[in-house]
Amino acid sequence: MDFRETDEQQMLREAVDGIASKYGHSYFAGRARSGGNTDELWNELAEGGFLGVNVPAEYGGGGMGIAELAIVLEQLATNGCPLLLLVVSPAICATIIAHFGSTAQKESWLPRFGSGELKMAFAITEPDAGSNSHKIATTATRDGDIWRLNGTKYYISGADESEAVLVVTRTGVDEDTGRGRLSLFLVDLDSAGLDKTLIPVEIVAPEKQFTLFFDNVEVPADRLLGTEGDGLRQVFVGLNPERIMTAAMASGIGRYALEKAAAYARDRSVWGTPIARHQGISHPLAKAKIEVELARLMCQKAAWACDSDADPGVAGEAANMAKYAAAEAALGALDQAIQTHGGNGMSSEYGLADMWGMARLMRTAPVSREMILNFVAQHSLHLPKSY
Amino acid sequence: MNVVVCVKQIPDPAVPGTLDPQTHTLVREGKLIMDDSDAYGVEMGLQLAEAAGGGEVTLVSMAPAGETSGLRTALAMGAAKAILVSDDALKGSDALSTAKVLAKAIERAQPDLVIAATESTDGYTGTTPVQVAELLGFPSVTFAKKVSVGDGRVHVERQTEAGYDEVDCPLPALVTVTAGVVEPRYPSFKGIMAAKSKPVDQLTVADLGLDAGQVGAAGARSEVTDVTAADERKAGEIVVDEGEGHQNIVAFLEQLKLV
What fold is seen in the domain A232-380? Predict the structure, then answer.
């Protein structure tokens, strides 16, 4: 066993760190507050090939895996720039297209993920189908050469800045189980009949959240991704990467908070000695550090399992555990960093409190803490299913 | 045009270094990284080779224990290959014995231009590059803040205290570059993945046709006899502003002849 990252992974970390540190959290938060985007950072990452490290090499990508993409996002978040679209676009969408796309689909979509030209949103969640994908009500109906999509999707990240969206729809019903048969479609966001409305949220992030309304949206037949009716199995291939990337982003936020807290505690002196000398300050930070490092370790294991030929059960369990642990660790680290900063913890200048919404989101999304506990209880501990 | 860039691999400056109590030389154990000041030279070399429309950048380095970590960083930036001289006999080298080794290694690459940093971040002697030039019989131009090549000549804007000198000299030549010369690129992911498969020619002192007695501690002409800790920085003067603080600031600046 060897816990060292490869030379390439270390260099990747350094290179992304170099780019991200030029921008930093003030850039990220500034853009979020002004309603702007982070194009300069996105484009610089694209130029270096960092947005497509997991895209297969024959389609212009880096030919590596989620482990490498997770390093990219972790380093961005460590510099205060947790770019949510990295979770959605290259991790979920590119992974599913690479696995199940036709040759023509792969040729037309995959190279543009790496070049940064393409951002793709992902639409699974619905007002009445959150964690229960079987209840998806958005339908796709065949009409001659085309499909017609109808329904509503919500909490769709970055739908305003994406070119297309990968939509999970119902195309039939399994007669034995009564459950929906799901199919995946690649839909242009400027399609006629597709409207989006902003969902105001208390998260300081340049990527905004939207409700998407599909009203008889016509989708060409060649936009069906993979096999009709096999969408649920196909979409799961993108969901472990989503959890791992969320864990990487949370770990990065945890590291960001702890670095700031440690620097502040070393400098800040109230009774003639740096506050870091008080164990009331140093012990909670040490505890938070342990929890962040443990989460990182599970995140690395999950990424390794996802990229290797390990038993898919190992990847699923580790990805869920990593997401759970990293979200909890990030919140713990951020909370303690704010506490360490005293009144300054809430100031805009110190860039901590504005990260709260993003860190808190990760306890809920993409899968809630409670659903992970259900999963672990049932699959890891073989306890009875609770829902 | 073929460019050689001298790359020093040094202990990570972020980690406090230690000196050998006997020899007073820097302990070089564990992973070494590329000296940040060499990133400018690598970038300059890549840009000049690109502008010349052909040729490549070869890295030359001398490091203990076959260390290549720092070279991989420069290879990831785009250098084509590297020559690494690594030999136990090189322990205790001073600037001149280092220059002897580097000059022999550089000769193998038959460069049109050799680029080095003005000085390293760990040793700071700042003498090795010009010694290399002398041994190679090349003209040397130091402290370049701008470099261009054309018609078999190198044109350099050489940083001075007053401004800069314009210096023009025939190739082959050696130029030392400052941190102001170009902005180093970050390696791309493709560059990072390609770095491992780029050739690193690993040589010993004997391979270079040098005698062990000419190099390392045996060939060194300088010796560090003692090391003294630098004086602790004195605390600044605190002036309590009672309405006249601005006058104190003006007086302080006048004393420094800044106003």
Answer: Butyryl-CoA Dehydrogenase, subunit A; domain 3 (1.20.140)
